[in-house]
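Appendix B. One record, verbatim.
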Amino acid sequence: MIPDFNYEILYLVLFIILKSTTMTAAAKSIYYFGFYLYLTGLILMVAPNFLLSTLQLPETKEVWIRVLGVVVVTIGYYYHRSGAESNTLFLKNTIATRIFVFLSFAIFVLANYVSPVLIVFGVIDLAGALWTWMALKKGE
């Protein structure tokens, strides 16, 4: 016997794919950044010590890192949905905050608070901010 196929999931996946192809480049930059935040947040929630050891930070059994993962997933949702809805005001506001993340991470590294590996995450934020900024400039 063939099991019932859940068409609702298929429709949802198709909606996400088709919706992403009709967005502006600036909206796509935020939309995809949301998925990056989802992944990072889920790792913090499920396997935080994997990320901490990658950043050469001490491992922990404290719950705070998992709580941070919940916050990151939530912020990812804001990015994902704002990109899907082409929320231009949100797109513009993320540019400064993502540059701030890069600068903060760079200062943490220069102050020897963390391993230079953290700069990789800052560069991802900076690249996303530049992508959004250039796409908004091009669209104006």
